[in-house]
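hey so u asked for the seq, here:
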Amino acid sequence: MFLNVFTQVVILFILIFLGAILTKKGVFTEKGISSMTDMVLLLVTPCVIIKSFIREFDSTTFKKLLISFLIAILSHIGFIILSRVLLRDKNERSQKVLQFGVIFSNCGYMSIPLQQALLGDDGIFYGASYIAIFQIFIWSYGLLLMSGDKKVLSPKKMLINPGVIGVSIGLIIFLLSIPVPKVIAEPISYLASLNTPLPMLIIGYHLMKSNILEGLRNIKCFFAIGIKLFLFPLLALLVMYLCGVRGTMLISSVISCSAPTAAITTMFSDKYSCDTALSVNMVSISTLLSLISMPILITLAQHLA
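ran it, structure tokens below
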């Protein structure tokens, strides 16, 4: 099992490496990557989610989906509480980044490709709920944490974003068992297939642009990454297992929780004048170390599932 998961992660890292090479050669530019990122967020990710919901309604599956939403909600709440307890820093700008970075996972870019490769559409079906809750929390608590200003909170941003929209459309299709004609389903499928290569190339660009050596000298950064990649996913796995969660739902949820620090950490850090250099290091180093951590945690989840 470990070898299978490790192989899938290595495949993703090969794509990341290619993105780094293309960046080094000057093929990828900041403007081009920005456009590619928008395409993934606004078009590709919603198509991946919608594709996983194109199936006949089943009451048992629906109940499991509701449980997966609850798991995602409780996971984020638990991570928020623990981050406030475990991560303190005299520099408020750094503390915000450390806490934000351990709470929010790269559950779109890193998780969905793995869920698709290891679990198929069922894995994405449950993973989509994590993305929806992630979007709601990141545009509420995440925004409040980084900005420190309640005035920036917007119900519109919380509920009208690509992740939530994708899940909403998918839920309507699933709950009403709406038959999706081939002329629509095929384009959705083609766009969804871009979700593995494009995000990895984007990550490769950001890794090449980051100063990883600087991050390797930051002990607090390493401590936070250890919490993000090992402690939080292990706690989530233990709680889910004790609560009787098994099968694909358990594995899919662990994949979402064990993903490295979300790339949006840097975007928020830059926008609200936090420690941007620290955010870049957290994203970069956690992404590299996830090559080790994710296979271990996912294999453990597969064993317990």
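The CA atoms of residues 72 and 130 lie 5 Å apart. The chain has a mean pLDDT of 89.
lmk if thats what u needed
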